[in-house]
Amino acid sequence: MAIVPLHPFGSPQERLLDRAEVKSNSVFMAGLAETLAANRAKVKAGWGEKYVERVHAKGKLTAWERVEALKDEGAPVYPLGTFVNWERDFDQGGRTLQAPGAGVVTVFTKVEDRWVIVIANDNTVASGSWWPQTPEKIERAQEIALRLRLPVVYLVDCSGLFLPEQAKSFPGQTGAGHIFMKNSQLSAAGVPQIAGVFGDCIAGGGYMPIISDRVYMTEQAYMVIAGAALIKGAKSQHLTSLGIGGPEVHVSKSGCADERVPDDQACLRAIREEIARTAASGADFRRGGVAPAPPRYEASELDNLFPPDHRTFYDSREVLARLVDRSLFWELMPDVGQEMVVGVGRVNGLYCGFIANVQGPVPDPEHPGKVRPGGILYRDGIAKISQFSRACNSDGIPIVWLQDISGFDIGTDAEARGLLGYGSNLIYTNSSNETPMFTVLMRKASGAGYYAMAGLPYEPVVQLSTTIARQSVMEGRTLAIAAYNTKLDDDFNIATEDEAEREAIAKGMAAVEQRIEGDMDPYKAASQRDTDEIVSPAELRGWLECLVESAYQAQGYRRVKNPRIWSLHDLAAISGDA
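RE: above sequence
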């Protein structure tokens, strides 16, 4: 029972695809990857080189330079919320401004060999002020840290709310003040919080670091509820914000900060020393002496597996073979609900459960010898992934959901077979799981299937979208048919002999389809925080190494069973797979 039967999985690329397919797929994905890289660079540049020079002229580093100086040498950086506010314009009395990345940098990275969440105000964007959606982006990073019990590092350089847009970021339930509630929840859970204060920290920017366990201030930093500009008589009294709330005040008098340091680099070194004093990672213990290993089939090949036409299928098992260590996998219940793949593999030496949709035709158990389309949730597949999800939760194994879902089965037979009840069972399971769950939208994320497979409304710790992900209730063409259903015949052709009316209907349907296709763009989803980050498929292995190891880093806050007492073994025995 203690043996986890990991078996070779997948095939060499040359057995899967001919050269023409590889070339076509790779050219298609390379174009998307190039666009992604350019868009990331645009966000990372903030308000541009002129504002970088202003920061440097003050003897300070930019937010990204601080992240680079803080992290371990050679450690990866995995950003969250890069495209929040993407291409969103803010009209300021005839002048249009943008807030790249909502003016804040939030990332996973490693410091002293521990995964941490770093939250850094982008001081090249309106002095690091908070725009609409900035608070929500910060809170999302705090929530991820709380769920995984990862240390949080705040690199604070914030002039408070961007006041012209205050109505959109101040008053709501998740407005700016909710950041401080998250500070408090992290503290109550015992999650280390360390803050470096580097510059103008006014109002909310001043409150943000205070609940942290350690607060460091550089000599040019200050924390104030209101700066000198708002204090009556400040000019005549020769008051400055630094004099009101600088390190001399908060380290030596108020006790709101712990230590003063000369500059940015010294502050970052001090933060590293504090992280080194936190609990070490439990991940190596959970590996059980098994060394991490890359997949046998390179993860970079993932950019060759996906065809340009989203209606064309690919082999989800081959995707898994390029994500798990040594391309070894234990598939459970392969003969039940064959539209779904469930099983266990190691990622960076650590056990992880996977649930993936199968694309293309699959056997129809209700009609032997016939097939039905994959990428849809049928009764047996729903029952299978519900049981697997429960077992992983019982065993403390993190779950990765690889979504490519068109929705639930529909029709008279589906309803008679109780599909609503089975779907509710799955939703309950995923809503009550305590084990960390991570969701990847591989391609389609449609209808209630998106919800049932741990989509963002069901609070996975992190949701990633690939560059080909498409979130919607319906595809554009399907929705256009639904909208104009009364004008169509049983074959969905326009039912009129009037040429003018036919042209108007065709034009209207095309407009609906085009608008929905635009709404399904992953950048649109990322801009309004409907997904956490956009990635190329070839980047998924690195992301999973980060997420799965993060899930095992903290110790004692959740049950992690050893493989001898896994519920998964019982599930395999009952289903005849043991």
